[in-house]
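Fill-in record for Pseudouridine synthase RsuA/RluA-like domain-containing protein.
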Amino acid sequence: PCAPPRRGTRQTRTKALTKTRTPTRTPSPTPTPYPTHMNSNPSPSAKATSGVLLAAKTQTAVRELSRAFADRNVRKRYRAVLIGVPAVLGGDGGFNATAAAAVDSSEPHVISAPVDGRASVTEWRAVNITRSLRFGYLTTVDMWPRTGRKHQLRRHAAEVLGCPILGDTKYERIPHGDEGNFGISHGMGLFLCAVELRLAHPLSGQDLCIAVGEPPKFTKTREREHRRFLDLADAGAAQDDDVEM
C-alpha cells in the first residue's frame, strides 16, 4: 500500500488490515492481522513510501516470520529512482549509455559500508537510465539489502553512490542555489518501494515470492523528465534515449 496509516493518526496499519483482511480459521489466530514487515522504518519521513506489506494471521506465523527476518532468510527487493548516475556506470563525467548497459548486465554491485557504526551491505543493479533536464540523469535501480539498518538504502544511495533517492529530503545534498531545481518531489513522496519478498511459508515451508509492480509515479516521472529534456534541451544534447539495463 502507498502511505499506509501510521501510529499517531486516527487510523493505523493494524486497523487498516483488520478492515481489509478476513480472520483465519486455523489454530492460535492473532486478534488482528499482525504486520511483520514494511518497506521502511515507520517514521514521519517514511509516510510516503509504498510497497509490499506482509501480515501474519496466527501466533505461529508471527513467530516464524519474525525469526525469518531476524535470521535474514527473507530476500527483499526494492525499486528506487536515484538522482544522477553512480560512478561505477560512468557518472563521474564519463557516462556512456552503451558502456553503462554493458556494465550492468553483470552480477549486482555490492555496497559494504557501515551505517551508524554497524556493518551494512546492499546489492544493487541499474534497470533504467533516463535523461532529465533538471538532474541530467535519473537512474532507476533495484536494491537488495543484506542487512536491515535504519535508512540503509537511502544512506547507501546518497553517501556511497553519491546519488540520493528522489524525494529524500533528509539525505539528498542539494547544491546551494539549486533548491528550486531539486525540489520536484514535494507531495510525491520518497521514490523507494518494496517490490518483492522471497521467503519460506511459515507453516508449510513452501518457497514464496510476493511481488508488485513499481508505483505509477515512477514511470510518470521518468516519462515527464525525459519529455522535458527532449523538448527544451539543445538539439545536439537531446539525442540520447532512455537506456534499459
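KEY FINDING: Strands lie at 29-37, 50-51, 54-58, 75-83, 109-112, 121-132, 136-145, 192-200, 207-211, 243-244.
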